[in-house]
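Whether sequence alone determines local backbone shape is best considered at the level of individual chains. For completeness, the protein is quoted in full, as a sequence line and a line of structure tokens:
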Amino acid sequence: MKKLFALLATMALCSMAIPPAYMQGQRNDAASRQEAPSVPGEALVQFKAGASDDAKGRALGRIGGEVLEEIRTAAMRHDGRGDLVLARFQPDLPAAAAMRALREDPAVEFAEPNWIYTHQATSNDPYYTDGSLWGMYGDATSPANQYGSQAGEAWAAGHTGSSSVYVGVIDEGIQFTHPDLDANVWNNPFDPVDGVDNDGNGYVDDIHGWDFDGNNNTIYDGGTQGRLDDHGTHVTGTIGAEGGNGIGVAGVNWQVTYISGKFLGRRGGTTANAIKAVDYFTDLKTRHGLRIVATNNSWGGGGFSQGLLDAINRGGDAGILFIAAAGNGGSDGVGDNNDTTANYPSNYQCTSNGKSYDCVIAVAAITSSGAKSSFSNFGATTVDLGAPGSGVWSTTAFNTYSSYSGTSMATPHVTGAAALYAASNSGASAATIKNAILSSTVPTSSLSGKTVTGGRLNVSGF
């Protein structure tokens, strides 16, 4: 179903944007966006299996480099690959020259910049009963909106989710004490707060998840003023704000368990931390058997990363869908065609190791009148479906509610759909869940020829 990819493509986190991809060992011919930002003087270097210390030292010597960090997540421990390291190189060496020198070394499998990811949510100006929460409506709900996700119809049929279904929120942090989110946050039974890494995953006391940007277990840093982590709190509310409690908003799932994989900080996030965040959820599922059905990825920016694609594929091998925002276009605010201009991570194709399905779902945004949101990227072969993404109300920090627009807002509707389907279909595989989402879309003229399905999200049967 997907995808075309570019050698280099810009990535900008999405409350508005997200990006496209390439298959392992194969780059596509999509045009690249203008050079994306990366951390100056840093490179991710994947050494070949069996490379000696001398060989690795020789390779880094080409760029006057030194190892800042060996990235060895629990999910990588048995993959048979060589070392993946974050390296620093001499600041007067251009990044392109450094990557070229590393790639020419026989000990190196790949080398790439440490891309920077960001989000660009827009706020306008509160919820279900007053007509504000249109993204949850259906044509048979009251209030009604045929272009909503139809979640209200699923609720009326008794499908409101389950706490036994888990989702990962890879984003900013989350105000998990918000009165509409506090009942659904994960409390880690494998690693109680005692200053010890009881489950041996490398993260001490990861009670609600982990902050990979700050390298600590504090997944919310906004304080009582809500200075930070609005974006992560907003997307989490769309996935799983508590429903039927008489306050605020309701998520697609009234009951679900969300886990934070915070990697976006004050200055955005990096590829190195994105890899660790993706692998964190893979390890939780493979080691502890948590029913993690999907991660929500409302972010983007940067170019193609083999290291990040490898992590996404490890998640896909474990049956975790990677649901990603299609992106919000460029600086002109007009959506771009992801078929011709690659946008990561939404364009990645997650099909390695013989998987019969692509674990990535790319999501465009639509308005309450069914139009494709003007800012939303699209792609007949690279974007799967549309979902509500303009004027979306949800939870924000601190104990507030706000309306944002972006493909970042559309994406958690689809992640919520994956969790809602899993709650009613306990044995469903990731491939089955993805097929259920894509096969149930409603044909929508604004998405015809603009997405794989030509339709919008419909969870009424979930």
